Protein backbone atom coordinates (compact mmCIF):
# COMPACT_ATOMS: atom_id res chain seq x y z
CA UNK A 1 0.00 0.00 0.00
CA UNK A 2 1.16 3.47 -0.94
CA UNK A 3 0.45 5.07 2.42
CA UNK A 4 2.19 3.14 5.19
CA UNK A 5 0.27 4.95 7.93
CA UNK A 6 -2.60 3.40 9.85
CA UNK A 7 -5.47 5.18 11.60
CA UNK A 8 -7.77 4.02 14.39
CA UNK A 9 -11.55 3.75 14.42
CA UNK A 10 -11.90 6.85 16.56
CA UNK A 11 -9.75 8.83 14.14
CA UNK A 12 -11.91 7.69 11.24
CA UNK A 13 -14.98 9.04 13.04
CA UNK A 14 -13.24 12.34 13.73
CA UNK A 15 -12.19 12.73 10.09
CA UNK A 16 -15.73 11.91 8.95
CA UNK A 17 -17.22 14.58 11.25
CA UNK A 18 -14.80 17.26 10.05
CA UNK A 19 -15.25 16.22 6.42
CA UNK A 20 -19.05 16.30 6.58
CA UNK A 21 -19.17 19.68 8.31
CA UNK A 22 -16.39 20.88 5.98
CA UNK A 23 -17.25 23.81 3.77
CA UNK A 24 -20.96 22.98 3.88
CA UNK A 25 -21.36 24.69 7.24
CA UNK A 26 -20.63 27.97 5.44
CA UNK A 27 -22.50 27.57 2.17
CA UNK A 28 -25.23 24.98 2.74
CA UNK A 29 -27.67 26.99 4.92
CA UNK A 30 -28.12 29.57 2.18
CA UNK A 31 -29.08 27.13 -0.59
CA UNK A 32 -31.16 25.09 1.86
CA UNK A 33 -33.14 28.17 2.85
CA UNK A 34 -33.41 29.21 -0.79
CA UNK A 35 -34.98 25.91 -1.84
CA UNK A 36 -36.84 24.73 1.25
CA UNK A 37 -37.60 28.08 2.95
CA UNK A 38 -38.89 27.52 6.51
CA UNK A 39 -38.43 23.78 6.16
CA UNK A 40 -34.65 23.96 5.60
CA UNK A 41 -34.07 21.88 8.72
CA UNK A 42 -36.44 19.12 7.54
CA UNK A 43 -34.57 19.02 4.21
CA UNK A 44 -31.27 18.83 6.10
CA UNK A 45 -32.48 15.84 8.15
CA UNK A 46 -33.83 14.11 5.05
CA UNK A 47 -30.54 14.60 3.21
CA UNK A 48 -28.76 13.13 6.24
CA UNK A 49 -30.91 10.00 6.05
CA UNK A 50 -30.17 9.57 2.33
CA UNK A 51 -26.49 10.27 3.02
CA UNK A 52 -26.40 7.54 5.69
CA UNK A 53 -27.87 5.08 3.18
CA UNK A 54 -25.05 5.96 0.78
CA UNK A 55 -22.54 5.36 3.59
CA UNK A 56 -24.12 1.92 4.01
CA UNK A 57 -23.36 1.23 0.33
CA UNK A 58 -19.71 2.25 0.79
CA UNK A 59 -19.39 0.13 3.91
CA UNK A 60 -20.73 -2.86 1.98
CA UNK A 61 -18.21 -2.22 -0.81
CA UNK A 62 -15.37 -1.92 1.68
CA UNK A 63 -16.33 -5.36 3.01
CA UNK A 64 -16.42 -6.89 -0.50
CA UNK A 65 -12.99 -5.52 -1.38
CA UNK A 66 -10.92 -5.73 1.79
CA UNK A 67 -7.72 -3.66 1.68
CA UNK A 68 -8.49 -2.21 -1.77
CA UNK A 69 -8.76 1.55 -2.35
CA UNK A 70 -11.06 3.04 -4.97
CA UNK A 71 -8.47 2.34 -7.67
CA UNK A 72 -8.09 -1.26 -6.54
CA UNK A 73 -11.87 -1.75 -6.42
CA UNK A 74 -12.31 -0.31 -9.90
CA UNK A 75 -9.56 -2.49 -11.33
CA UNK A 76 -10.70 -5.66 -9.56
CA UNK A 77 -14.33 -5.34 -10.62
CA UNK A 78 -14.11 -3.68 -14.04
CA UNK A 79 -10.77 -4.93 -15.27
CA UNK A 80 -7.48 -3.11 -15.60
CA UNK A 81 -8.36 -0.72 -18.44
CA UNK A 82 -11.96 0.19 -17.72
CA UNK A 83 -11.18 0.32 -14.01
CA UNK A 84 -8.23 2.58 -14.72
CA UNK A 85 -10.43 4.91 -16.77
CA UNK A 86 -12.99 5.14 -13.95
CA UNK A 87 -10.16 5.86 -11.50
CA UNK A 88 -8.95 8.76 -13.66
CA UNK A 89 -12.50 10.15 -13.55
CA UNK A 90 -12.45 9.90 -9.75
CA UNK A 91 -9.10 11.70 -9.75
CA UNK A 92 -10.73 14.52 -11.72
CA UNK A 93 -13.73 14.54 -9.38
CA UNK A 94 -11.67 14.83 -6.20
CA UNK A 95 -9.30 17.37 -7.74
CA UNK A 96 -12.20 19.58 -8.84
CA UNK A 97 -13.67 19.18 -5.38
CA UNK A 98 -10.38 20.33 -3.83
CA UNK A 99 -10.41 23.41 -6.07
CA UNK A 100 -14.03 24.18 -5.14
CA UNK A 101 -13.35 23.83 -1.42
CA UNK A 102 -10.26 26.03 -1.67
CA UNK A 103 -12.30 28.59 -3.56
CA UNK A 104 -15.01 28.52 -0.86
CA UNK A 105 -12.56 29.66 1.80
CA UNK A 106 -11.07 32.22 -0.61
CA UNK A 107 -14.47 33.69 -1.39
CA UNK A 108 -15.42 33.77 2.25
CA UNK A 109 -12.21 35.56 3.25
CA UNK A 110 -12.28 38.10 0.42
CA UNK A 111 -15.94 39.01 0.87
CA UNK A 112 -16.25 38.94 4.67
CA UNK A 113 -12.93 39.17 6.48
CA UNK A 114 -10.07 40.47 4.29
CA UNK A 115 -11.78 42.34 1.43
CA UNK A 116 -8.62 44.01 0.13
CA UNK A 117 -6.39 40.94 -0.02
CA UNK A 118 -6.07 39.32 -3.47
CA UNK A 119 -7.73 35.91 -3.43
CA UNK A 120 -4.58 34.24 -4.83
CA UNK A 121 -2.64 34.96 -1.65
CA UNK A 122 -5.33 33.53 0.58
CA UNK A 123 -5.33 30.38 -1.55
CA UNK A 124 -1.53 30.12 -1.55
CA UNK A 125 -1.20 30.42 2.21
CA UNK A 126 -4.14 28.16 2.99
CA UNK A 127 -2.89 25.51 0.57
CA UNK A 128 0.66 25.67 1.92
CA UNK A 129 -0.63 24.83 5.39
CA UNK A 130 -2.73 22.00 3.97
CA UNK A 131 0.24 20.55 2.08
CA UNK A 132 2.41 20.80 5.18
CA UNK A 133 -0.22 18.81 7.07
CA UNK A 134 -0.97 16.06 4.57
CA UNK A 135 2.50 15.59 3.03
CA UNK A 136 3.57 13.01 5.57
CA UNK A 137 0.53 10.82 5.01
CA UNK A 138 -2.81 10.29 6.64
CA UNK A 139 -1.65 9.16 10.08
CA UNK A 140 -0.25 12.48 11.36
CA UNK A 141 -3.12 14.29 9.65
CA UNK A 142 -5.66 12.17 11.52
CA UNK A 143 -3.85 12.84 14.81
CA UNK A 144 -4.06 16.57 14.12
CA UNK A 145 -7.78 16.11 13.46
CA UNK A 146 -8.18 14.56 16.90
CA UNK A 147 -6.51 17.58 18.51
CA UNK A 148 -8.67 20.10 16.64
CA UNK A 149 -12.06 18.42 16.90
CA UNK A 150 -12.70 19.48 20.55
CA UNK A 151 -12.18 23.12 19.52
CA UNK A 152 -14.70 22.79 16.72
CA UNK A 153 -17.16 21.26 19.18
CA UNK A 154 -16.46 23.97 21.77
CA UNK A 155 -17.12 26.81 19.31
CA UNK A 156 -20.14 25.04 17.92
CA UNK A 157 -21.71 24.49 21.34
CA UNK A 158 -20.90 28.11 22.29
CA UNK A 159 -22.86 29.28 19.28
CA UNK A 160 -25.82 27.03 20.07
CA UNK A 161 -25.85 28.08 23.73
CA UNK A 162 -25.51 31.84 23.12
CA UNK A 163 -28.05 32.22 20.33
CA UNK A 164 -31.43 31.41 21.97
CA UNK A 165 -32.12 35.07 22.96
CA UNK A 166 -32.26 35.84 19.22
CA UNK A 167 -34.68 33.01 18.36
CA UNK A 168 -37.96 33.83 16.63
CA UNK A 169 -40.02 30.66 16.75
CA UNK A 170 -42.55 32.12 14.30
CA UNK A 171 -39.81 32.02 11.62
CA UNK A 172 -40.30 28.26 11.47
CA UNK A 173 -43.94 28.54 10.48
CA UNK A 174 -45.57 27.35 8.36
CA UNK A 175 -44.20 23.83 8.57
CA UNK A 176 -44.45 22.16 5.13
CA UNK A 177 -46.53 25.17 4.04
CA UNK A 178 -45.50 24.78 0.40
CA UNK A 179 -45.82 21.02 0.18
CA UNK A 180 -43.07 18.45 -0.07
CA UNK A 181 -41.45 19.53 -3.36
CA UNK A 182 -39.43 22.47 -2.00
CA UNK A 183 -38.18 20.19 0.78
CA UNK A 184 -37.04 17.66 -1.81
CA UNK A 185 -35.18 20.40 -3.72
CA UNK A 186 -33.41 21.34 -0.50
CA UNK A 187 -32.64 17.69 0.18
CA UNK A 188 -31.04 17.36 -3.25
CA UNK A 189 -28.93 20.46 -2.76
CA UNK A 190 -27.57 19.28 0.60
CA UNK A 191 -27.20 15.68 -0.53
CA UNK A 192 -24.94 16.74 -3.43
CA UNK A 193 -22.64 18.61 -1.01
CA UNK A 194 -21.36 17.03 1.27
CA UNK A 195 -23.00 13.58 1.32
CA UNK A 196 -22.10 12.44 -2.21
CA UNK A 197 -18.49 13.35 -1.47
CA UNK A 198 -18.29 10.85 1.38
CA UNK A 199 -17.36 8.29 -1.32
CA UNK A 200 -13.86 9.69 -0.70
CA UNK A 201 -13.68 7.56 2.45
CA UNK A 202 -13.25 4.49 0.24
CA UNK A 203 -9.67 5.80 -0.09
CA UNK A 204 -9.33 6.02 3.70
CA UNK A 205 -10.98 2.82 4.97
CA UNK A 206 -8.14 0.52 3.81
CA UNK A 207 -5.84 2.33 6.24
CA UNK A 208 -8.06 1.69 9.27
CA UNK A 209 -6.95 -0.76 11.92
CA UNK A 210 -9.69 -3.25 12.90
CA UNK A 211 -11.32 -2.72 9.53
CA UNK A 212 -14.26 -4.97 10.42
CA UNK A 213 -15.62 -2.22 12.66
CA UNK A 214 -14.84 0.71 10.36
CA UNK A 215 -18.41 0.76 9.01
CA UNK A 216 -19.92 1.82 12.29
CA UNK A 217 -17.18 4.40 12.89
CA UNK A 218 -17.77 6.04 9.51
CA UNK A 219 -21.54 5.99 10.00
CA UNK A 220 -21.20 7.65 13.42
CA UNK A 221 -18.95 10.37 11.99
CA UNK A 222 -21.26 11.24 9.12
CA UNK A 223 -24.25 11.17 11.49
CA UNK A 224 -22.66 13.63 13.94
CA UNK A 225 -21.46 15.91 11.14
CA UNK A 226 -24.85 15.79 9.47
CA UNK A 227 -26.65 16.65 12.71
CA UNK A 228 -24.35 19.65 13.13
CA UNK A 229 -25.29 20.82 9.62
CA UNK A 230 -28.98 20.36 10.38
CA UNK A 231 -28.60 22.35 13.62
CA UNK A 232 -26.86 25.20 11.76
CA UNK A 233 -29.67 25.21 9.17
CA UNK A 234 -32.25 25.30 11.96
CA UNK A 235 -30.45 28.14 13.75
CA UNK A 236 -30.21 30.18 10.53
CA UNK A 237 -33.95 29.94 10.05
CA UNK A 238 -34.74 30.58 13.73
CA UNK A 239 -32.50 33.65 14.01
CA UNK A 240 -32.38 35.17 10.53
CA UNK A 241 -35.59 33.84 9.01
CA UNK A 242 -35.84 32.17 5.61
CA UNK A 243 -35.66 35.46 3.67
CA UNK A 244 -32.46 36.75 5.22
CA UNK A 245 -30.83 33.33 5.26
CA UNK A 246 -31.45 33.07 1.51
CA UNK A 247 -29.97 36.47 0.73
CA UNK A 248 -26.71 35.87 2.60
CA UNK A 249 -23.92 33.97 0.91
CA UNK A 250 -22.68 32.77 4.31
CA UNK A 251 -25.65 32.71 6.73
CA UNK A 252 -23.76 30.97 9.51
CA UNK A 253 -21.36 33.92 9.62
CA UNK A 254 -24.23 36.38 9.95
CA UNK A 255 -25.58 34.06 12.62
CA UNK A 256 -22.41 34.43 14.65
CA UNK A 257 -22.62 38.23 14.25
CA UNK A 258 -26.00 38.14 16.01
CA UNK A 259 -24.52 36.79 19.24
CA UNK A 260 -24.77 39.58 21.77
CA UNK A 261 -24.84 38.93 25.49
CA UNK A 262 -25.33 41.93 27.79
CA UNK A 263 -23.31 44.32 25.59
CA UNK A 264 -20.27 42.39 26.75
CA UNK A 265 -19.92 39.33 24.55
CA UNK A 266 -19.90 40.90 21.11
CA UNK A 267 -18.36 40.39 17.68
CA UNK A 268 -17.71 36.69 18.11
CA UNK A 269 -17.96 36.03 14.38
CA UNK A 270 -14.26 35.74 13.64
CA UNK A 271 -13.84 33.34 16.53
CA UNK A 272 -16.64 31.33 14.97
CA UNK A 273 -14.92 31.55 11.60
CA UNK A 274 -12.23 29.52 13.36
CA UNK A 275 -14.53 26.49 13.21
CA UNK A 276 -14.79 26.83 9.47
CA UNK A 277 -11.07 27.27 8.96
CA UNK A 278 -10.54 24.02 10.82
CA UNK A 279 -13.29 21.99 9.12
CA UNK A 280 -12.44 23.33 5.66
CA UNK A 281 -8.77 22.66 6.33
CA UNK A 282 -9.49 18.99 6.99
CA UNK A 283 -11.93 18.63 4.11
CA UNK A 284 -9.46 20.18 1.69
CA UNK A 285 -6.66 18.03 3.09
CA UNK A 286 -8.68 14.84 2.59
CA UNK A 287 -9.74 15.81 -0.95
CA UNK A 288 -6.19 16.68 -1.92
CA UNK A 289 -4.93 13.50 -0.28
CA UNK A 290 -7.43 11.34 -2.19
CA UNK A 291 -6.53 12.97 -5.54
CA UNK A 292 -2.82 12.54 -4.95
CA UNK A 293 -3.16 8.94 -3.76
CA UNK A 294 -5.27 7.99 -6.79
CA UNK A 295 -2.66 9.60 -9.05
CA UNK A 296 0.13 7.76 -7.26
CA UNK A 297 -1.63 4.41 -7.49
CA UNK A 298 -2.51 4.90 -11.18
CA UNK A 299 1.01 5.88 -12.18
CA UNK A 300 2.60 3.19 -10.03
CA UNK A 301 4.75 5.66 -8.10
CA UNK A 302 6.59 4.38 -5.04
CA UNK A 303 5.83 7.46 -2.89
CA UNK A 304 3.39 10.35 -3.35
CA UNK A 305 5.09 12.76 -0.96
CA UNK A 306 6.96 14.72 -3.68
CA UNK A 307 3.78 15.19 -5.73
CA UNK A 308 1.86 17.47 -3.37
CA UNK A 309 3.72 20.70 -4.13
CA UNK A 310 3.64 20.48 -7.96
CA UNK A 311 0.00 19.34 -7.87
CA UNK A 312 -0.66 22.30 -5.58
CA UNK A 313 0.40 24.63 -8.40
CA UNK A 314 -2.27 23.14 -10.68
CA UNK A 315 -4.78 23.27 -7.84
CA UNK A 316 -4.08 26.99 -7.31
CA UNK A 317 -4.60 27.71 -11.02
CA UNK A 318 -7.81 25.65 -11.08
CA UNK A 319 -9.18 27.27 -7.92
CA UNK A 320 -8.80 30.71 -9.50
CA UNK A 321 -10.58 29.91 -12.78
CA UNK A 322 -13.12 27.42 -11.45
CA UNK A 323 -15.82 30.01 -11.19
CA UNK A 324 -15.73 33.54 -12.50
CA UNK A 325 -18.30 34.88 -10.00
CA UNK A 326 -20.57 33.78 -7.20
CA UNK A 327 -23.69 33.58 -9.42
CA UNK A 328 -21.91 30.98 -11.56
CA UNK A 329 -21.27 28.93 -8.43
CA UNK A 330 -24.93 29.15 -7.42
CA UNK A 331 -25.97 27.81 -10.84
CA UNK A 332 -23.50 24.98 -10.47
CA UNK A 333 -24.57 24.14 -6.93
CA UNK A 334 -28.33 24.24 -7.57
CA UNK A 335 -28.66 22.79 -11.08
CA UNK A 336 -25.57 20.76 -11.91
CA UNK A 337 -23.79 19.47 -8.81
CA UNK A 338 -26.34 16.77 -7.94
CA UNK A 339 -26.41 15.09 -11.36
CA UNK A 340 -22.66 15.50 -11.79
CA UNK A 341 -21.91 13.89 -8.41
CA UNK A 342 -24.43 11.09 -8.74
CA UNK A 343 -22.31 8.78 -10.96
CA UNK A 344 -19.39 9.10 -8.53
CA UNK A 345 -21.47 8.71 -5.38
CA UNK A 346 -23.83 5.93 -6.49
CA UNK A 347 -23.29 4.96 -10.15
CA UNK A 348 -19.72 3.69 -10.07
CA UNK A 349 -19.97 2.11 -6.59
CA UNK A 350 -23.02 0.13 -7.77
CA UNK A 351 -21.08 -0.80 -10.91
CA UNK A 352 -18.23 -2.11 -8.71
CA UNK A 353 -20.78 -4.17 -6.80
CA UNK A 354 -22.25 -5.65 -10.00
CA UNK A 355 -18.76 -6.29 -11.35
CA UNK A 356 -17.90 -8.16 -8.14
CA UNK A 357 -21.05 -10.29 -8.45
CA UNK A 358 -20.32 -11.18 -12.09
CA UNK A 359 -16.70 -12.02 -11.31
CA UNK A 360 -17.89 -14.26 -8.48
CA UNK A 361 -20.32 -16.03 -10.81
CA UNK A 362 -17.58 -16.66 -13.38
CA UNK A 363 -15.23 -17.93 -10.68
CA UNK B 1 5.63 39.60 -15.92
CA UNK B 2 6.40 39.81 -12.23
CA UNK B 3 3.79 37.13 -11.58
CA UNK B 4 5.33 34.78 -14.13
CA UNK B 5 8.77 35.29 -12.61
CA UNK B 6 7.44 34.60 -9.13
CA UNK B 7 5.75 31.38 -10.33
CA UNK B 8 8.94 30.19 -12.08
CA UNK B 9 10.89 30.99 -8.93
CA UNK B 10 8.42 28.94 -6.87
CA UNK B 11 8.75 26.09 -9.39
CA UNK B 12 12.52 26.13 -9.07
CA UNK B 13 12.15 26.11 -5.29
CA UNK B 14 9.84 23.06 -5.41
CA UNK B 15 12.27 21.22 -7.71
CA UNK B 16 15.20 22.06 -5.44
CA UNK B 17 13.24 20.74 -2.47
CA UNK B 18 12.04 17.41 -3.88
CA UNK B 19 14.25 16.40 -6.81
CA UNK B 20 17.64 15.76 -5.15
CA UNK B 21 16.20 13.19 -2.74
CA UNK B 22 14.42 11.37 -5.59
CA UNK B 23 17.57 11.21 -7.73
CA UNK B 24 19.78 10.21 -4.81
CA UNK B 25 17.53 7.21 -4.13
CA UNK B 26 17.45 6.33 -7.86
CA UNK B 27 13.67 6.70 -8.05
CA UNK B 28 13.75 7.74 -11.69
CA UNK B 29 10.12 6.85 -12.39
CA UNK B 30 8.92 8.99 -9.48
CA UNK B 31 11.21 11.78 -10.66
CA UNK B 32 9.70 11.61 -14.17
CA UNK B 33 6.15 11.82 -12.76
CA UNK B 34 7.24 14.66 -10.48
CA UNK B 35 8.73 16.62 -13.37
CA UNK B 36 5.65 16.18 -15.58
CA UNK B 37 3.40 17.32 -12.72
CA UNK B 38 5.67 20.31 -12.12
CA UNK B 39 5.62 21.23 -15.82
CA UNK B 40 1.81 20.96 -15.89
CA UNK B 41 1.48 23.02 -12.72
CA UNK B 42 3.81 25.73 -14.01
CA UNK B 43 2.01 25.95 -17.35
CA UNK B 44 -1.41 26.26 -15.68
CA UNK B 45 -0.22 28.71 -13.03
CA UNK B 46 1.52 30.96 -15.56
CA UNK B 47 -1.54 30.76 -17.79
CA UNK B 48 -3.69 32.32 -15.05
CA UNK B 49 -1.31 35.30 -15.01
CA UNK B 50 -1.79 35.82 -18.77
CA UNK B 51 -4.62 37.87 -20.31
CA UNK B 52 -5.78 34.78 -22.25
CA UNK B 53 -8.14 32.93 -19.91
CA UNK B 54 -7.52 29.35 -18.85
CA UNK B 55 -10.34 27.02 -19.99
CA UNK B 56 -12.56 26.11 -17.06
CA UNK B 57 -13.43 22.39 -16.78
CA UNK B 58 -16.52 23.33 -14.80
CA UNK B 59 -17.89 24.99 -17.98
CA UNK B 60 -17.89 21.62 -19.74
CA UNK B 61 -19.55 19.90 -16.79
CA UNK B 62 -22.24 22.57 -16.63
CA UNK B 63 -22.75 22.29 -20.40
CA UNK B 64 -23.17 18.52 -20.05
CA UNK B 65 -25.50 18.41 -17.05
CA UNK B 66 -27.44 21.70 -16.94
CA UNK B 67 -30.30 20.69 -19.33
CA UNK B 68 -30.98 17.62 -17.16
CA UNK B 69 -30.67 19.69 -14.02
CA UNK B 70 -33.26 22.16 -15.33
CA UNK B 71 -35.55 19.24 -16.15
CA UNK B 72 -35.23 17.85 -12.62
CA UNK B 73 -35.84 21.30 -11.16
CA UNK B 74 -38.99 21.70 -13.23
CA UNK B 75 -40.34 18.35 -12.03
CA UNK B 76 -39.81 19.44 -8.42
CA UNK B 77 -41.37 22.90 -8.66
Secondary structure layout plus pairing:
The complex is a heterodimer of chains A (363) and B (77).
Chain A lengths: L8 H13 L2 H13 L3 H25 L5 H9 L1 H34 L5 H16 L3 H25 L18 H12 L21 H34 L3 H7 L11 H31 L8 H14 L4 H37 L1
Helix pairs in contact in A: 1-7, 1-9, 1-11, 2-3, 2-8, 2-9, 3-8, 3-9, 3-13, 4-5, 4-13, 5-6, 5-11, 5-12, 5-13, 6-11, 6-12, 7-11, 8-13, 9-10, 10-11
Chain B lengths: L1 H23 L3 H22 L7 H19 L2
Helix pairs in contact in B: 1-2
Care to describe what's here?
The complex is a heterodimer of chains A (363) and B (77). Chain A is mostly helical and 363 residues long. Chain A has one domain: Hydantoin permease (Orthogonal Bundle). Chain A is built from 13 helices and no strands. The two termini of chain A are 26 Å apart. The model of chain A has no long low-confidence stretch (mean pLDDT 90). By secondary structure, chain B is mostly helical. Chain B has one domain. In chain B, 83% of the residues lie in helices and 0% in strands. Chain B is built from three helices and no strands. In chain B, helix 1 runs antiparallel to helix 2. The radius of gyration of chain B is 20 Å and the shape is elongated. Classes of the chains: A mainly alpha (363), B mainly alpha (77). At the A-B interface, helix 8, helix 12 and helix 13 of A face helix 1, helix 2 and helix 3 of B.
Oligomeric form: heterodimer
Tally of individual helices of chain B = 3
Based on CA inertia axes, which overall geometry of chain B fits? Answer: elongated
Q: What proportion strand of chain A?
A: under 5%
Number of strands of chain A: 0
The amount of helix of chain B comes to: over 70%
Largest sheet of chain A: none
Assign an overall shape of chain A.
globular
- As a percent range, the share of strand residues of chain B is under 5%
**Cα Rg of chain A:** 20 Å
Q: Per CATH, which architecture of chain A?
A: Orthogonal Bundle
* Mean pLDDT figure of chain B: 90
CATH level-3 fold name of chain A? Hydantoin permease
* Broad CATH class of chain A: Mainly Alpha
Derived from helix and strand composition plus strand pairing, the structural class of chain A reads: mainly alpha
Helix content of chain A: over 70%
Q: How many angstroms separate the termini of chain B?
A: 50 Å
Keywords (chain B): Membrane, Transmembrane, Transmembrane helix
Transmembrane segments (chain B): 31-50
Keywords (chain A): Germination, Membrane, Transmembrane, Transmembrane helix, Transport
Transmembrane segments (chain A): 12-34, 40-61, 81-101, 121-138, 145-163, 183-205, 217-242, 273-295, 307-326, 338-358
Amino acid sequence: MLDKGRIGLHQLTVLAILFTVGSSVLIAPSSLAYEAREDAWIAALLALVVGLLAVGLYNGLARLFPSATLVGMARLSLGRWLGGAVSWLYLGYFFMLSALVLRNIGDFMTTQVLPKTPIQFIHIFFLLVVVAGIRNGLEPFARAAEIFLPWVMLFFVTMVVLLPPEFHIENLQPVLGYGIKPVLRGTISLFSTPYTEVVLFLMIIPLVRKRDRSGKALLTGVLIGGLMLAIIALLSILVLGADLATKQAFPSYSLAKKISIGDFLERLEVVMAGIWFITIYFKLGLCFYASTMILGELTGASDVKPFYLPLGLSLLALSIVIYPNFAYFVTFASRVDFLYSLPFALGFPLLFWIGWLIRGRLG
Amino acid sequence: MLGTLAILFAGAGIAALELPALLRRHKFKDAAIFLSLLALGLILAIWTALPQELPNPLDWIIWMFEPWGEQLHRILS
